[in-house]
Amino acid sequence: MNVDRDHIAAALPGYTLGAELGRGGSGVVLAARDEADQRVAVKIMSIADEERPLFGVTGVPRVLAATDPDAEAEARLLAGLDHPHLVKVSHHVRHGDVALIVMELLDGGSLAQRAVAGLSVEAACAIGLGTAAALGHAHSRGVIHRDVKPANILHTSAGVPKLTDFGIAHADVPRAGGRTPVRASSGTPRYMAPEQFTLGELGPATDLYGLGVVLYELLARRPVFQVRPSTKQGWANHHVAVTPRPLTGIPGPVAQVVEWALAKDPDRRPADAREFALALAQAMAGTRGTDWLTRARTPTFLDDDVRAAASRFPARTAERPRQASTPPGDDHGLEPVLDRPDTVDDDVAVDSDTAPDGDTAPERAVAADSDGDALTDSEHRPPPGHPRRPRRSWRSAPWRRS
């Protein structure tokens, strides 16, 4: 995508455009100063392809026709997201064949960059709680992110983690003639939930799976699977059918919460972001001490019940038998995760119902485990103290009713 700076400047009178900060599948981001001389970021998204109404950082559609009331309703819903752990957006502009989004400038680096040096268990889990809080806010308004990954978690200069880039987010808003079709296979293969590959129904559990993969990598400092696939189809086979390696080297209750989010069946994952956050907060308090959030040195804005759980020793902490802990610095002979740019199939968001090599959806090509036996979800049970609740249908939540 080429950037015509004169064109952009005409769309944002009074702004001074600066250096390019980055680019990806959903657009290019430039540094800028607004009319008040405040530093901001400007995301530029092409809207030339009228057949693909994807979403930008604010959740505002890249294609937003003035005559399309349904698109406007969806844009208003997504633009209404406002949370301390979500990137703050000031406004959006459509100018000719591009859409521009003006947002806060996050100059504290991405989680992908910070992970290269390694994070403490406390810091990783604090970021996990902040991200879960952001997801819970989005989910309560009907928005599924679909692309939770380290590159999409940026930090302020003060170290506050913020979820960004709703470039392929889905907001399920009732429309005349039916609901919006979901392009379920959109996402970054390395962090996609099984149902994104199999064209299943998406919901909050979809994003929790992605967050589970992120936390697994941060805590284990290695990939989730023994074999690192090189194609989208390979990732599909693994996420759909291959059991992740046990998460060792960290407290068992913490590992159990992360593994809970990685259940293949979304109905076996936490019911929502709050349930996941409470379980993680309690597991950390019970194993790392009630002051672990302070030691994390990561600013977080959490609901009162989650913060209380993080600072209160549980009445009972049960731990199921686990493998021996991994010695510090032992990477199992594997290359460190997040220590280099990934391939296009590995860490770049895609928006296609077919794999790059032409393979079709993985439900017709699902792998078995190394012994050829079918895999189950028996290991992905709720942690002690979090009994499985009857799951309320994502599509019947109160805010989704007409």
From TrEMBL:
Residues forming the Protein kinase domain are 15-293
GO molecular function per UniProt: ATP binding; protein serine/threonine kinase activity
Segments of skewed composition (Acidic residues): 344-356
Could you say which enzyme class this protein belongs to?
transferase
Which Enzyme Commission number(s) are on file for it? Answer: 2.7.11.1
Compositionally biased intervals (Basic residues) = 386-402
User: InterPro entries per the record?
Assistant: Kinase-like_dom_sf, Prot_kinase_dom, Protein_kinase_ATP_BS
Key word ATP-binding present: yes
For the keyword Cell inner membrane, the answer is no
Give the residue ranges for region: Disordered: 312-402
UniProt keywords, alphabetically:
ATP-binding, Kinase, Nucleotide-binding, Serine/threonine-protein kinase, Transferase
Question: Where, by residue number, does the polypeptide cross the bilayer?
Answer: none
**Sorted alphabetically, which Pfam families does this protein's record hold?**
Pkinase (PF00069)
Residue positions binding ATP:
43
Basic and acidic residues composition-biased segments:
329-343
Q: Which PANTHER family match?
A: MITOGEN-ACTIVATED PROTEIN KINASE KINASE KINASE 20-RELATED (PTHR43289), SERINE_THREONINE-PROTEIN KINASE NEKL-3 (PTHR43289:SF6)
Recorded protein name is non-specific serine/threonine protein kinase
User: In which organism is this protein found?
Assistant: Parafrankia irregularis
Taxonomic placement: Bacteria, Bacillati, Actinomycetota, Actinomycetes, Frankiales
